[in-house]
Amino acid sequence: LLTWCGLSGKSFIPLLSSFACAVPAIMATRSIEDRHDRLTTILVAPLMSCSARLPVYIIFIAAFIPDRPLLGTFLGLQGFTLFAMYSIGILVAIPVAWLLKKTLLKSEASPLLLELPSYKWPNPRTISLKVYQNSKNFVLRAGSIILATTIFMWALAYFPRSAALLEHYEQQRVQVINTTPAGAREQALKAVDQAEAAALLQQSFLGQAGHMIEPAVQPLGWDWRIGMATLAAFPAREVVISVLGTVFSLGSDHDETSEDLLHALQGAVWPDGTPVFTVPSALSIMVFFALCAQCMSTLA
């Protein structure tokens, strides 16, 4: 099956590993001798849906895909949608791999030959040295890029800090302390903190970028909040959930199982009162995450 699209059997384990994470999958392509086969496998590996995309699928399927049977009790519409998101990467990877092997990385498909040596107990010293050397190489080569990009993305989400905005919410805290009964004070202060975080994120460079790209993503049914969340997901895809929690004034500690976040997405509206998220727009977000290799670690 892999030979048909230009790959060898040795591409199977890296592609299978990509469903967990594309980074070790790409590292695993070192076992592929042919350079063109290796590069093709590296380029299509991120199309497999890694575990970091699962929270995005879960929250949008739960919020916008009806929970109704599709094939009786065997398969529901929500389950089928999740299966489709995993399948779309595989279906796209086949023609991409075939096209790469016919054009830029043209070469004959290599036969799968596996040597079966006489197995021996591994030497602990040899294993320790290999693990140390490979870990060191990865940290030095990729770690420096990942660290720099993470700091850069944090700065975009943190700055600028409006003194007037900070003062406004500080006054709200003082008012809550002075006027709210002791039993409800902690919850009221938490609501002020969440509103402040959402306002600061909206005024940050990242929030400004979200507003800037809104005209480009609006035909997809997205608003600036989803545009900003996809930008913020560059370090790691699952970050989009905590960013949406912050921007909807719920806090960043919400995950894909949060009922509050689910209801916030369902209740989001455009300025004219129409819902931001519909079934087509939710599907467009999931397809985008299924096919977009925006994970910083994978690119590094």
Structure description:
The chain is an all-alpha fold and 300 residues long. α4 crosses α5 (77-102). The chain is built from 14 helices and no strands. The chain is globular, with a radius of gyration of 24 Å. Helices cover 64% and strands 0% of the residues.
Shape type: globular
Number of helices: 14
Q: Percent helix among the residues?
A: 55-70%
Low-confidence stretches: none
How much of the polypeptide forms β-strand, as a percent range? under 5%
Task: Give me the count of strands.
Answer: 0
Q: What is the compact description of this entry?
A:
The protein has helices at residues 12-17, 22-28, 35-44, 54-64, 77-102, 124-158, 163-179, 182-203, 205-217, 224-232, 239-247, 259-267, 279-291, 296-299.
Notable features of this structure?
mainly alpha; 14 helices; globular; single chain; 300 residues
Topology record:
Elements: H1 12-17, H2 22-28, H3 35-44, H4 54-64, H5 77-102, H6 124-158, H7 163-179, H8 182-203, H9 205-217, H10 224-232, H11 239-247, H12 259-267, H13 279-291, H14 296-299
